[in-house]
Structures are given as structure tokens and as C-alpha cells.
Amino acid sequence: MTKKALIVQGGWDGHEPEKVASIFQDILKDENFDVEVADSLDAYADVEKLKSLDLIVPHWTMGEIEQKYVNNISQAVISGVGLAGCHGGMCDSFRKNVDWQFMTGGNWVAHPGNDGVEYMVNFKHSSSALFEDMDDFKVVSEQYYLHVDPAVEILATTRFPVVSGPHSTNGSVDMPVAWTKRWGLGRVFYNSLGHVANIVAMQEVSHMMRKGFLWAAEGKTLYQTNSTNKNEPVYTGMGDSQ
């Protein structure tokens, strides 16, 4: 059966959301997904439609979202739908919504040096085999500093500081670049690379996104195959920001 994916693009134009969404669409179509691309957050209004998908791909930066839409996405992911995205299009989408940050596993706070920083992406070959075929590589782009959920499984890191600043006096740290997380029965994947379309189009980055999309979407199939309880309760514990 053909898998279904929804890409929702928009927000800050500097991240070239329309161009990036087109790259994502091509990747997913190449993997035989039926892909819908929307340019409005109203695409999240129908929770039953969202729950019918295999994958949701948000690419919306620095926006504001109605709480009911976040609840709908959360309910869909809890039920097994995958959630996967990159850069500010997923972990700088809605700065005022902590529920979104809880679900996605982290949020952007800085990119010292802004765009044009040269740094290494180092893969962590841990219990996940997702990027076992990839080698470390160099990129020239924004180097994201993120606040990250300790529950995530880190797949790749970058070394800070590369650019000096007030953070430098803390010493060197390994900052997550890519991770996976579980949200209910759903799989969540994030990659901090992808500032603009030409970075997303890099062979290494597009390969990371392809692998992440497939991994996240596979979760629903595995759930439907193995689950004995199709009526899991909807999580209602994200009330502090509502």
C-alpha cells in the first residue's frame, strides 16, 4: 500500500520553505509516497486526516500556531504517524509553544557566527543503525545550538565552539545535529542541517533526510502489524501552556 505524507511549508522566507518542500517532495515521491504539500497551518485542522497519514513533515519557521493544531498533530503522532523535519522548519517553528518543543525533542536558541560557519558533522554509531552507511562530513552553513530533550537518541553531533562568544568559556561540547525520539507510538526524526535549499540538496543532507523520513514513516506500519490495542488514550498532560 502506498504511504501518505503531508508537507506543511511556510513561515520565515529566509529558510526558503517552498524550495525545501519541493526537495522533500521529490525525495518522498522517489520512495513511492503519495505527497500533499500545503502552505497553510490549517492543514493541521482535521485530526482524522492527520491520523490517516504515515508521515507529517513540518517546514515552518518562527510562526505562531493554534493550540488545537498542535494537539491534533500530537494525537496523530501518538497514534503512530511519523514526524520528521529539519533545521528551523521543525525545531524553530513555534517559539511560544512548549508542547511543540516537547514533542519534537528540542528547540533552537542560537547559531554563533550566523551563516557561513565551517564545521564538521560527526556520526555516532550507537544502538541505532540509521546512519551506519554514512561518514563524517564538513558543511559551511549555520551551526545550530539547541536545547535538547535528554530522552532523544543522538545520531550525529558537531563540536562547539567553532566561533568564539560568551558560550566559549564553558569549554567544548558536542551539540546534537540529528536525533530520533518516540512520541507515544510515533517516531520523531530531526536534523538541524538545512538552512537553505542548497544545504538540503547536499548529497549527505538529503540522504539523512531520506533515511529519517523512511524510519519515521515505518513506525505506523510496525504499530499496525504488532499492536494489540488500537484504542490508546489521548495524552492530555501538556496543559501548562494552554
Short description:
The protein has 242 residues and is of the alpha/beta class. The protein has 7 helices and 11 strands.
Largest sheet: 9 strands, mixed
Question: Element order, helices and strands?
Answer: EHEHEHEHHEEEEEEEHH
Q: How much strand content do the residues show?
A: 25-35%
| Structural class estimated from helices and strands | alpha/beta
Low-confidence parts, pLDDT < 50 over ≥5 residues? none
Kindly state the mean pLDDT as a whole number? 94
> Which percent range fits the helix content?
25-40%
Counted by DSSP, the helix tally is 7
Rg value: 17 Å
Tell me the distance between the termini: 38 Å
Record the strand order, biggest sheet. 2-1-3-4-11-10-9-6-7
Extended strand count: 11
Taken from the alpha-carbon principal axes, the silhouette is globular
Question: What would you note in describing this structure?
Answer:
With 242 residues, the protein is an alpha/beta fold. The protein has helices at residues 17-30, 47-51, 67-78, 87-91, 98-104, 197-200, 203-226; strands at 4-11, 34-38, 55-61, 82-86, 106-110, 117-123, 137-141, 145-148, 153-160, 173-183, 186-191. A 9-stranded mixed β-sheet has the order 2-1-3-4-11-10-9-6-7, with helices on both faces. A two-stranded antiparallel sheet has the order 5-8. Strand 10 (173-183) and strand 11 form a beta hairpin. The longest helix has 24 residues, at 203-226. It is globular, with a radius of gyration of 17 Å. It starts with a strand and ends in a 16-residue tail after the last helix. The mean pLDDT is 94.
